[in-house]
Amino acid sequence: MARIELNNLAHQYAPGGDYALQPMQHVWEDGGAYALLGPSGCGKTTLLNIISGLLQPSQGRVMFGERDVTTLPPEQRNIGQVFQFPVIYDTMSVFDNLAFPLRNRKLGEDYVERRVTQIAGMLGLEDVLKRRAKNLTADAKQKISLGRGLVREDVAAVLFDEPLTVIDPHLKWQLRRKLREVHEQLNLTLVYVTHDQTEALTFADKVVVMLAGQVLQVGTPQALFERPEHTFVGYFIGSPGMNFFDCQVEGGEALIEGHRVAVDPAMAQAAGEAGGLLQLGIRPGLIRTAAAGEKGLTLQVENVEDLGDYELVTGYLGSQKLHVRLEESEKIGSDGLEVVFPREHALLYADDRLVGGGK
Ligand code: ATP
Fold it and tell me: Domain named ABC transporter: which ranges (predicted)?
């Protein structure tokens, strides 16, 4: 295992062309589970390929611990890899498939037997070890692929490229949980590429959110939810995402089309100094209805959806659209709704960056 350090790393596919990856400086800790999350084309695969050695960066260094691996080919980097589609030997047994990376390194058969049994047990493959891989379901084949990626103990890191793409939707959540457990037991450094926020949030200790070749935030799922450092992170994480309103700051408050919203005074002051396009962000589930007699903000309600354990209100504050998640006990009509943006949950952004928090 190793920490992964990206030192002033950047990539242009053509000299002088667009940056597929903007210059970045990051350290990913030894034994951590990281997810690279972002929309199509944001640079996830480019970054993963640079880490695995399939692609040489046009700028910067990649370090595994103290070892500079920037120019080393994949086979000299000591990494495990799992791809979108199963990479297995169909004619071999499941056991031999899992044993392959170990036997390749000439490890003793006693050890191979123990380690393969351990990994098969973790992934629920113990009952099919003697079967030929080709006779198994697509899900089981991908589990073998996961096992092959995880079986070596001496790897610097294991890289996963959207490994649950071929898995049946109703089995995906089981395998996500399984991978999480495997990580806790094996203590490997894992890097997992996905465009699916649920996969990223259940799998990773730290999520690396990317957009247009830039890393916008590296944070725990909780930090990404509570303090998105960029408006895109707030919008991309959560279902639905964070609400944003164009606003001004005046007398320590945010002004949204004439509606006054109390915000943290230090944040209001910093926002005033930052200038630029100011926005107020708040999560749909952190808005509450005003108590009897309490002065709130009046929303025009456009639509109320009953989603079982909560109601999703779509409405407007002035001309600006928002979502509010309400408990069922707060059922409302479709005329108007008085709400409060609790001060501790109302965040200010200047030119898309969280004021006073982050880069
Ligand atoms: P996806 O989720 O669709 O795989 P991604 O986040 O992995 O997307 P990349 O495939 O890394 O994104 O692409 C990042 C940028 O680099 C995109 O603008 C893409 O068009 C460009 N790109 C990717 N591969 C090449 C290539 N071989 N030559 C030129 N440009 C490329």
Answer: 4-237
The answer to whether 247 and 279 have CB atoms below 8 angstroms apart is yes
Residue to mutate (ligand 1; options 11, 13, 18, 83; most atoms within 8 A of CB): 13
User: pTM for this structure?
Assistant: 0.92
Ligand 1 binding pocket includes 11 (Cβ within 6 Å)? no
Residues 207 and 299 in one domain: no
State how many domains the chain has.
2
Please give the residue range of the domain that contains residue 114: 4-229
Tens-binned pLDDT, residue by residue, of the chain (359 aa): 689 999 999 999 999 999 999 999 999 999 999 999 999 999 999 999 999 999 999 999 999 999 999 999 998 999 999 998 888 999 999 999 999 999 999 999 999 999 999 999 999 999 999 999 999 999 999 999 999 999 999 898 999 999 998 888 888 888 888 888 888 888 889 999 999 998 999 889 999 999 999 999 999 999 999 999 999 999 999 999 999 999 999 988 999 999 999 999 999 999 999 888 999 999 999 999 998 888 899 999 998 998 888 999 999 999 999 999 998 666 675 567 899 999 999 999 999 999 986 44
Q: How far apart are CA 253 and CA 242, in angstroms?
A: 20
Contact present, 46 and 20 (Cβ < 8 Å): yes
Residue 359 forms part of a structural domain = no
The finding on whether 46 has its CB within 6 A of some atom of ligand 1 is yes
Alpha carbon nearest to ligand 1 atom 29, residue: 13
Residues 62 and 22 in one domain: yes
Distance of CA 228 from the midpoint of ligand 1 (Å): 25
Q: What is the ipTM of this complex?
A: 0.98
Instruction: Please indicate whether residue 20, judged by its CB atom, sits closer than 6 Å to ligand 1.
Output: yes
Same domain, 137 and 221: yes
Whether 350 and 278 have beta carbons less than 8 Å apart is answered as: yes
Mark whether 243 and 221 lie in a shared domain: no
Q: Is the CB of 43 under 6 A from ligand 1?
A: yes
